[in-house]
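Sanity check

After download, print the first record. It should look like this:
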Amino acid sequence: MKTTPSRHRRILGETAWVFFGQGMSAIATLVGLRLITELVSPDVYGTVALALGVVLLAHGLAVGPLMQAVLRYYPDVAVGGGEHDLRRAALTALRRPLFIALAALVMVATGWSVVEPEHAWLALLSATLFLAEAARSVEITFLNAARRQRAMALLVIADAWLRPVGAVVMVWVWGAHGAAVMAGYLVGAAVALLAYWAAVRSTRRASSDTAGAALVAIDLPRRLRTYARPLTALPLIGWVSGQADRYLVGGLAGLAAAGVYAALYGLASKPFLMLASSIELALRQPYYARVSAADHRGAHRVFAVWLASVLVLALATCSIFVVFHAEIASVLLAAEYRSHSALMGWIAAGYVLLAAAQVFERVCYAYHDTAGVLGVQAAGALLSIAIAAPLVWRYGIEGAAWAVPAYFGAQLLLTLARAAYVWQRARPQDPALARPHIAGVARP
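Expected structure tokens:
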């Protein structure tokens, strides 16, 4: 059994790799954003941003809920050497949602191509990128669940750099239109995945021959689906909260305005998403493991470190955007995209609140309160539309930015209330909730 100092050293090492991976991918994102906005016009960038939003929605609906189930069940099944069985169960459970999502994307792409034939290639490539996103999510989820943060960081870095490089190359070769940008993203994602699979092929073949057989008789696909079922609507809800405003801007103010807003929003939100994601990737599995082991004091310590880290880093980042928004825009965005740079401060403030809400949300995931997560996020999504729509209609992209801290602040209050309820409910029956029973898996 590992001593406490040894566990702390492991967490610190994992955290270092996570931040390295996220930092390098952040640099890639910023460099890519500057290069792409120099090469394509705001209306082209706006079209690509809207197409990527649809891909993100389809990916979230088909893959996201099951990956959350994998992350939560991994500490329980790994005890019996069942990672291979869990991977097989996850792939089995993914078949149907992947097929349905891909079919829906193809239908949307076909309809878009009929209405706007000039975007036919962009529509087709968007549907294909969905498959690459799904494969990438499976690999990153299992690497993070196993706390193999170095391998995960290298995959994240390769993907983050190869996508904008591919987009720039394809724009030079094919022309400054949306299909070229999407083709570059697809090529970059595919190359990163193929390189990773080539690197791990021999290791995976060896491990598959020796994988623990304790879980063979267990209906893991059904158990994963049971956990994930309440989360099925979350990607749509999250998409509404995080993406709907740019569609409102596009519909009410035009594609060029949507392109400017998408660039500002992406630049302001990306650091917060990466900071929150980095800390979550480092601390989520240790937190889940302590909840599974009924180590409630240890779980609370990890949670406290998690929340404090997110708040300190997010507030510091927000202050940078508030003070230096013009300088940031002048360095990282082309001249056509720099108008309204002050709005990045409003967006940044909203993402401070969202980052805190996501930490409290993990309490619900840890104690299998996925229905509570669904309720909170559904209420947040409804509030985001109710707040953003009239402001966008009245004030355009300024109103969209002003709405961000309002609806994410409301979501934080709802999430905090739900987490307090889950803690209170779990207190008298911690052992039962902390370690969900999985038939056939021995408890250590």
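If your output differs, re-run the checksum step. Summary of this record's structure: The chain has a mean pLDDT of 83.
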